[in-house]
Design brief:
four-stranded mixed beta sheet; 11 strands; 493 residues; 10% strand
């Protein structure tokens, strides 16, 4: 790589990256290593020196996985990426172990610094009837979590124990630096697609869209609004616990109820029945709830790694960290349902049209998209269920081969699904899949809305399933043709 800093190329060289990828994804070793070098070279000199000092402090025999894990811990954007892929089966188990440590780190911010930040943001804590109870509980990519107990008159409140989520000093600047470098990495990849043997996907544009979303990580005032909405949205779910927000917050400090428990993948019992139950609750809460929402814009949690999913002392699922929230529009959900319905009935042209409707901007290569859809329809003929996992795999291929450009929230929903696949697989390795839970939930919703359909206009899709009576009638009328297409191997009718 011309002009690359020799130190960084030695640290994240292609051979090393290759050692932590599965064989299926070996071709991405060089693009990943080159992208990391571009990113690291772009950091300010003082941050580069600090990272090198941290690397030098590792044992001399530290392997690639340990060094990459430490590198991710050094940069908030890489830290967040590490949390996302920490349970990704495409990575070597050794790297996943190190990345999973990023989900919740031991606190590194001095206690005195934390007290100073709280004093500047909230004023004297005794006036709030709050007493800190050190030490800090954990540290994440942008914040540290500090416990407290309410005193005085507030001590009689049933929510006596709380935590402060406090932004790390200087984190806004470091995050801005990291995220601005993503655009530089995107330009580098765009200019070298042929050389690196990667598809031309307009990486700079994709990274810019993700950058705008990740900036919300340091906007705790926005997280506080998300937390209020989530608390109201899930108040009817007895198996789900959303922390309650306290009144004394600031743009850099969130005060909320303390959740007693631990990471859902660590704290849950060895009972297979209980692990399966919680796996189902995870899918129902974080995927089914937004997918089958009646809201025009259904919010969803964009960062559901295991460090943000707690198994509580009363056997509930607590969902933490609502800083990064996306929105599934009515159009998105209708298109998704139409794609899966058309795929189930082997109607390729309808799949193509619905996939095209998801495009954020720019033209889709219809010929390439047709090839992608035909290949995926053949999988259904061989017995694969046309569920969410099938859909996402097809959309990934359409992005790569047909130039499909997805809206930012759909990209984040893809990330959410991918993260949850790893969590569910760890909770119930040989049991349920995400599609199993969503299929059951779909038919439950369909049964609940059935009485309302008698008075609904034929074309209305104002239902949780986003299916109109006309959609259902057409599907039933086409069943004989679906069977014929299945046996004849035809997928474009």
């Amino acid at each position: 790589m011309t002009g690359a800093n020799a130190i960084w190329t030695d640290l994240v060289n292609e051979e090393g990256v290759l050692s932590v990828l599965t064989e299926e994804y070996a071709q991405f070793a060089r693009p990943i290593s080159d992208a990391l070098v571009v990113f690291l070279e772009g950091l300010p000199a003082d941050r580069q020196q600090l990272i090198l000092k941290e690397q030098a402090a590792l044992p001399a025999d530290a392997d690639v996985a340990e060094r990459l894990g430490k590198l991710a811990q050094s940069c908030p954007a890489l830290h967040k990426l590490g949390q996302i892929v920490a349970r990704d089966s495409r990575l070597a188990p050794e790297l996943r172990i190190h990345l999973q440590q990023l989900e919740s780190l031991p606190p590194s911010i001095p206690w005195g610094v934390i007290r100073d930040v709280l004093g500047r943001e909230l004023g004297p804590l005794d006036r709030l009837d709050v007493e800190l109870t050190p030490p800090a509980l954990a540290e994440a990519s942008v914040a540290v979590v500090v416990p407290f107990r309410r005193t005085g008159a507030a001590a009689n409140n049933e929510l006596r124990d709380g935590v402060f989520k406090v932004l790390k000093p200087g984190i806004e600047v470091r995050m801005e630096q990291d995220l601005s470098l993503l655009e530089q990495v995107g330009r580098y990849l765009d200019q070298r697609c042929d050389e690196l043997h990667i598809p031309a996907l307009d990486y700079q544009d994709a990274f810019e869209q993700v950058r705008d979303k990740l900036l919300h990580e340091v906007r705790l005032d926005q997280e506080q609004e998300h937390l209020k909405c989530a608390f109201a949205e899930y108040s009817d779910q007895r198996q789900v616990h959303i922390p309650q927000l306290f009144e004394f917050c600031s743009p850099r400090v969130t005060a909320m109820e303390r959740i007693f428990g631990g990471k859902v993948t660590d704290e849950i019992s060895d009972s297979r029945i209980e692990r399966r139950r919680i796996a189902e609750v995870v899918v129902q809460t974080l995927l089914a709830r937004p997918m089958f929402s009646l809201m025009n814009d259904a919010p969803f949690h964009c960062d559901p790694h295991a460090g943000n999913l707690f198994y509580t002392k009363d056997r509930r699922l607590a969902v933490l960290d609502w800083s990064l929230v996306g929105s599934l529009t009515e159009k998105h959900r209708t298109s998704v349902v139409q794609i899966m319905l058309a795929a189930a009935t082997l109607r390729s042209d309808r799949v193509i049209n619905s996939v095209s409707s998801l495009a954020n901007r720019g033209a889709v290569d219809r010929s390439a998209l047709r090839r992608v859809v035909h290949g995926r329809i053949q999988q259904i003929r061989r017995g694969q269920f046309s569920g969410l996992e099938w859909l996402v795999a097809m959309l990934d291929e359409a992005v790569r081969d047909a130039g499909l450009r997805m809206p930012p929230d759909m990209m984040l929903f893809r990330k959410t699904l991918h993260t949850l696949e790893g969590v569910v697989a760890e909770l119930d390795p040989a049991g349920i899949s995400i599609d199993d839970v969503l299929r059951v939930e779909f038919f439950r919703q369909l049964a609940q809305e059935w009485p309302l359909r008698w008075m609904a206009p034929p074309a209305s899709r104002d239902f949780a399933t986003r299916l109109s009576n006309a959609d259902l009638a057409e599907t039933m009328c086409n069943l004989p043709y679906t069977v014929a297409r299945y046996w004849l191997g035809v997928g474009a009718m």
